[in-house]
Write a sequence for this structure.
C-alpha cells in the first residue's frame, strides 16, 4: 500500500475551511495516482473532474479577490460531505485489496527493543509523533515507512530513508553524515544545524513538486527551521 495515498485521503476529509489543507492540490494528486493505474481511486478522480478541477488552489488565493475566491470554492465546500463518503468507501476498498500491506505502528519501546536485537532494516512501519531526541539511530535503513518524529541532536549517521513519507519531522542539529534520503515525500520538516557531510538527498518530492535533489537541499532545505 502506498502510504502517501492514505495520507492524502485522510487530509481530504479535513474541513475545507481549514486552510492548512489544500484540497484542490490533493485532488489533483489523487487523479494523478488514478491515471497511473490505481483504479480504486476512480470515484474520487471522477468527483474531481466533474466540476472541481477548475477551482483555484489555496496557494493561488492571493491572486483573487477574496470574496470571489470564496464564491468559487463554495460549491466544493457544499459537496465536501459527498467527498468524505467517497473517501471512506475508497479506503475500505484499498484495505480489502492490500490488507497485508498496511503499515505497522511501532511504539518507541517496541522500536528500541527491535534495535537491541540487531535489526537494521525497517519496512512498512509507522513512527508517529515519536520523540527520538538525543538517540543513537545510526546505520538504520527505513523503507516504505511513514515517519513523524523529533530527531533533534540524534546520531543518524549512515541512516537511510527510502521511498518513505516524512512529515512534520525535526532533524535540527542531528548527525546525518553519510546518510541518504531518496524517493521520499517530505513536508513541514526541519534541518537547520544538521551535520550533512556526505549526506545524499535524491529524487524526493514535497506537495506537488517532484525531483527535488541535492541542489535544492544545499540551497534552502538544509536551512529550514
Amino acid at each position: 500500500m502506498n502510504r502517501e495515498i492514505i495520507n492524502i485521503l485522510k487530509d481530504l476529509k479535513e474541513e475545507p475551511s481549514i486552510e492548512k489543507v489544500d484540497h484542490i492540490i490533493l485532488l489533483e494528486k489523487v487523479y494523478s495516482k488514478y491515471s497511473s493505474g490505481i483504479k480504486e481511486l476512480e470515484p474520487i478522480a471522477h468527483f474531481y473532474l466533474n466540476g472541481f478541477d477548475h477551482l483555484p488552489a489555496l496557494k493561488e488565493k492571493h491572486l483573487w479577490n477574496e470574496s470571489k475566491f470564496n464564491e468559487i470554492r463554495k460549491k466544493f465546500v457544499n459537496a465536501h460531505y459527498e467527498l468524505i463518503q467517497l473517501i471512506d468507501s475508497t479506503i475500505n476498498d484499498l484495505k480489502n485489496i492490500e490488507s497485508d500491506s498496511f503499515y505497522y505502528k511501532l511504539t518507541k519501546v517496541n522500536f528500541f527493543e527491535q534495535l537491541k536485537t540487531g535489526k537494521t532494516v525497517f519496512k512498512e512501519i509507522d513512527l508517529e509523533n515519536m520523540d527520538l531526541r538525543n538517540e543513537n539511530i545510526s546505520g538504520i535503513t527505513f523503507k516504505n515507512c511513514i515517519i513523524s518524529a523529533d530527531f533533534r541532536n540524534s546520531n543518524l549517521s549512515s541512516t537511510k530513508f527510502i521511498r518513505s513519507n516524512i512529515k512534520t519531522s525535526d532533524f535540527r542539529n542531528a548527525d546525518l553524515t553519510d546518510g541518504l534520503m531518496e524517493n521520499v515525500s517530505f513536508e513541514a520538516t526541519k534541518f537547520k544545524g544538521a551535520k550533512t557531510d556526505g549526506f545524499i538527498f535524491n529524487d524526493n518530492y514535497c506537495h506537488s513538486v517532484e525531483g527535488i535533489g541535492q541542489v535544492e537541499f544545499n540551497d534552502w532545505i538544509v536551512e529550514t527551521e
The radius of gyration is 19 Å.
